[in-house]
Amino acid sequence: ANKNNSLVIIVENTAESDMEVTFKAGDNYPNAKLGDLTLDCDASSVNAYQLQDPSRFENKDGSLNLDFKTGFTGNIYAIAKSVAIG
C-alpha cells in the first residue's frame, strides 16, 4: 500500500544492452482494461519509473507484475510514502 500514487519503481539494468520493462495489466476491472505498459530500460544504468495511476497494474492481492526481456540482469526495488499514520 502506498499513499496518493507515490510509488516509484527503481530498475537497475546491469546488462550491457538496453532492455524493456513491461508493467503488466492488473486483474482489477476497470483499470486493467488499459493493458500493459512497456518502457525503455537503459543499459548499465538506474531507471526510475513513477506511475501516474498504479491501480492500472495492481492485482487483487495488491501486487504488481513486471516482465523483462530475456537476458535482463540487475536489481529492482520500490519506494513509496507509507499509508500508516505515525
Descriptive notes:
The chain is mainly β and 86 residues long. It is built from no helices and six strands. A three-stranded antiparallel sheet has the order 4-1-6, with no helix packed on it. Strands 3-2-5 form a three-stranded antiparallel sheet, with no helix packed on it. The radius of gyration is 14 Å and the shape is globular.
The tally of helices reads 0
Q: Which class of secondary structure composition applies to the elements? A: mainly beta
Q: Largest sheet, order of strands side by side? A: 4-1-6
Low-confidence sequence ranges: none
Shape designation: globular
- The average pLDDT score comes to 89
Radius of gyration, in Å, reads 14 Å
Number of E strands: 6
How would you sum up the major sheet?
Answer: 3 strands, antiparallel
Oligomer: single chain
Helix content: under 10%
N-to-C series of helices and strands: EEEEEE
The rounded distance between the terminal residues' Cα atoms is 15 Å
Strand residue content: 35-45%
Topology:
Blueprint: E1 8-13, E2 19-23, E3 37-41, E4 45-50, E5 66-68, E6 74-79
Antiparallel strand pairs: 1-4, 1-6, 2-3, 2-5
Briefly say what this structure is:
The protein is an all-beta fold and 86 residues long. Helix content is 0%, strand content 36%.
